[in-house]
Amino acid sequence: MPRPARPLAASKSNSNVRMPEKGAPVPRAQAVYKALRRAIIEQALKPGVKLPEDAIGEQLGVSRTLVREAFGRLAVEGLVELKPNRGANVAYPTLEEARDVFEVRRGLERLVAENLAGRLTPAQSAELEAHVRLEEKAHEQDGPESIRLSGEFHIKLAEMTGNALLLRYVQEASSRCSLILAIYGRPHSSECAVSEHRQLIEALRAGDAARAAALMDHHLQSVVTRALLAPRGERDIRDVLAPYALSEGLTPS
Amino acid sequence: MPRPARPLAASKSNSNVRMPEKGAPVPRAQAVYKALRRAIIEQALKPGVKLPEDAIGEQLGVSRTLVREAFGRLAVEGLVELKPNRGANVAYPTLEEARDVFEVRRGLERLVAENLAGRLTPAQSAELEAHVRLEEKAHEQDGPESIRLSGEFHIKLAEMTGNALLLRYVQEASSRCSLILAIYGRPHSSECAVSEHRQLIEALRAGDAARAAALMDHHLQSVVTRALLAPRGERDIRDVLAPYALSEGLTPS
DNA sequence: TCTTCAATAATCGCATACAATACTGTTATT
DNA sequence: AATAACAGTATTGTATGCGATTATTGAAGA
Q: What ranges does the record give for the region Disordered, renumbered to this chain (chains A, B) (predicted)?
């Protein structure tokens, strides 16, 4: 008995922090949090980069207090690493953590697929197809647009489930994937094959939950193998320098 | 007149913050966060309860700064609701949010089951069975122990996957389930049927991933129907009093 | 008696100030 | 020359203070 897909209550931007009613001033802590979040996801702040409180506060025009608050939240989401008395860095997931993220993401998105199968409204269906057409167009020019659109497709699907928590988790996993691909990804691999998106939509519309889930599973699996690469760099100065030390006959403790 | 401090969180001394081993200076912000988290999960702080920064800081022996920081993080995890200029409350999930949480949890734990199928070491297998025996024993006396143990079984499984993110999400979902059951749950339903746990272990050991996943799915499904109930109480004074008002012929706006 | 509204009290949002800790460059010791 | 000890500086951890916002109370008007 297919319920109709539930519309999601107005986009609360993220999390349970309610936006103030219209006209009310937005808490600046929230603004700082969002700014940093975007900067990290868009890789303006690269993985591993040091995040000094006062420098960032100054740049954003707020005090350290708010920056710290933002750090705390970002740490919960895994975008920032907090080390006691040593400040914050943009997270630098290990290859192992990367695999964990992808595995969880697969599980979550399979849930999305199952949830959506047979419940897409015509409007939603149309929206997805329009999106895929955009992807196709962007794919030809092979810019960074292509990558962004690929990601948005998955977010769109999660939104359509009407399950706010599921959406949050998918977004979170997706954010972390951005970090991961920035570290371990091939330079210009388009993450998603557009044709796979098309097939998926088809299965969803046909109401074939099992097939949709399998397609999603396979799709994300292939993203990993297409995009993931052997590690390019190391996070810790020690690890970076170890080979140099050895080649010069030095002995790191 | 200062509001009387209510029995808030346990004193910091019994919060299992890393103890002064090796002179590790654990930020007290972390301690506050954990204390509040536990207090909420253990329902010392009930859903919907107001969380004034001052009172809590005083009770915990820290300033409002640290309390605010903790609130921010708890809000990301969905345990606290933050309303701009109006402070924080313990989250009070709606019935719809509750369903969302359970759905996501099912998806996550299915992943756990699939991941673990055929991979349990003998030691892990034994540990799980020992745990189930504990559950059985507790079940006879039907205390609150029973509920705690049921939850821990699921956490243990998630731990065994070795996937840190998966563990975190399962824990988070689990925390929120505590809130949900505090609101909508039957008074003394033992959440999990012990026999279902046994079957699950069996399937995992046999390496039957599909069966394990299906069992987990079914298991959690039945938890919902066993434990979930129509709403018992309302969070807002207005809603609590509405029926009284009506019965007295008063007309709340 | 029921509303409207102003005064007051309580609480939050944020910056700043001070204390504690870690980093860096220099000097002393072997 | 290498290591150890130290001091100065930079950065983080936490408390406190002040203006802003919201809740509450009480009184005046209808």
A: 1-24
Q: What is the DSSP letter of B90?
A: E
Instruction: Give the domain B12-90 fold.
Output: Arc Repressor Mutant, subunit A (1.10.10)
CA A109, CA A158: separation in Å to the nearest integer?
8
CA distances from B219 to A106, B224, B239 (A): 22, 9, 34
Which token pair is B50? Answer: 């107001």
User: How many residues comprise chain B?
Assistant: 253
Q: Which residues contact A1 (CB under 8 A, 6 or more apart)?
A: none
B76:A101 CB<8 A: no
Q: CATH says A28-90 is which class? A: mainly alpha
Which pLDDT does position B20 carry in this prediction? 34
Q: Is any atom of strand C within 7 angstroms of residue B85's beta carbon?
A: yes
What is the location of CATH 1.10.10.10 in chain B?
A: 12-90
CATH 1.10.10.10 occupies which residues in chain A? Answer: 28-90
Q: How far is the CA of B177 from the C1' of C1 (A)?
A: 48
Rounded Cα–Cα distance for residues A70 and A62 (Å): 12
* B76, B101, B164: residue with CB nearest A77: B76
pLDDT < 70: residue spans in chain B: 1-25, 142-143, 188-192, 229-253
Distance measured from the CA of protein residue A204 to the C1' of nucleotide C20, in angstroms = 58
CB A215 within 8 A of CB A207: no
- Candidate from A18, A85, A101 with C-beta closest to B165: A101
Phi, psi of B51 (to 5 degrees): -125, 85
Is residue A215 predicted with pLDDT exceeding 90?
yes
Name the closest residue (CA) to the C1' of nucleotide D16.
B63
Q: Nearest chain A Cα to B107, which residue?
A: A111
Interface test with B, best of A165, A169, A172, A175 (most B CBs within 10 A): A165
Give start-end residues of each CATH 1.20.120.530 domain in chain B: 95-227
- Distance from the Cα of A139 to chain B's closest Cα (Å) equals 32
Domain A95-227, CATH class in plain words = mainly alpha
Record: contact B163-A104, CB cut-off 8 A? yes
Q: How far is A21 from A32, CA to CA, in rounded Å?
A: 19
Nearest CA in chain A to B72: A73
Q: What whole-number distance in Å separates Cα of residue B89 and Cα of residue B179?
A: 13
* Average pLDDT score over residue span A200-224: 94
Place of tokens 């193998």: A225
User: Tell me: the pLDDT tens digits for B66-125?
Assistant: 999 999 999 999 999 999 999 999 999 998 999 999 999 999 999 999 999 999 999 999
